[in-house]
Design brief:
single chain, 12 helices, TIM Barrel, binds phosphoenolpyruvate, alpha/beta
């Protein structure tokens, strides 16, 4: 059976000391009252990963927010999947809309990044989602389908098993506008159907599909109650330990 997962994307927030404090607070809040039903992942900035990995007790997974599309070499400023692995992370967020839109990461680049992630025994959290104009033009299903086809569905069934997908409508990210539970369920069911067409219903049924976009303690429960919504990728609310752990308890 698939797992419920809540992952916190810290983006470019928190100094190292602040990040260590936040990770410690999250760990403490979860230890006092362990969640019954969900896996927890945090995605701090690269430079925090090794330090935070050394402090956590193993019940909280660590993700990088990005990785290089090349394995190693003269790529100033880049961080490879092998480095991420060696620092203690187990996951990498790939294809976040901020990477797509601010850094020009298109599906061919993201495909290479997915290859790097898999080669280094890391688990990708692959983000997909449409901008508002695409939804208004009723093109949102096609956009998501292409994002999956072009950068993810080249994986073999064995490689795909364990991959986490995050549906993040771009118009909902950091805007305070959340997809309605119906909109989320509709797209998640569509994504699961695409996975079933490509990999079969067993793999589709075991794939965790997370929702992201202004998910907060007060709306998480109604989103997570949907049969195809297996948790959340949380931005802003993951920067506060109380809010983040309240979302984890929303199942
Ligand atoms: C995100 O950036 O992945 C995200 C979902 O952000 P927020 O929760 O702040 O909308």
């Amino acid at each position: 059976m698939r797992k419920n997962i809540v992952a916190g994307n810290w983006k470019m927030n928190k100094t190292l000391d602040e990040g260590i404090a936040l990770a410690g607070e999250i760990q403490k809040l979860l230890k006092n009252n362990p969640p019954e039903d969900s896996g927890v992942i945090i995605a701090p900035p690269f430079i925090h990963i090794a330090k935070i990995a050394g402090l956590l007790d193993g019940n909280i997974g660590i993700a990088a927010q990005n990785c290089a599309s090349e394995p190693a070499g003269a790529y100033t400023g880049e961080v490879s999947a092998a480095m991420i692995r060696s620092a203690g992370a187990g996951y990498v967020i790939i294809g976040h809309s901020e990477r797509r839109h601010y850094y020009g990461e298109d599906n061919p680049i993201l495909k290479k990044k997915i290859e790097m992630v898999l080669e280094n025994n890391l688990i990708p959290i692959y983000c997909c989602g449409e901008i508002l104009e695409e939804r208004n033009n009723k093109d949102h299903f096609n956009v998501v389908k292409n994002q999956l086809n072009d950068a993810l569905f080249f994986l073999s069934p064995e490689e795909f098993t364990g991959v986490i997908v995050a549906y993040e409508p771009v118009w909902a990210i950091g805007t305070g506008v959340t997809a309605t539970p119906e909109q989320a369920q509709e797209m998640h069911a569509y994504i699961r159907g695409l996975i079933a067409d490509r990999y079969g219903s067993e793999i589709a049924g075991n794939t965790s599909i997370l929702y992201g976009g202004s998910c907060k303690p007060d709306n998480a429960a109604e989103l997570f109650a949907n049969p195809d919504v297996d948790g959340g990728l949380i931005g802003g609310a993951s920067l506060n330990a109380e809010d983040f752990t309240a979302i984890i308890r929303a199942f």
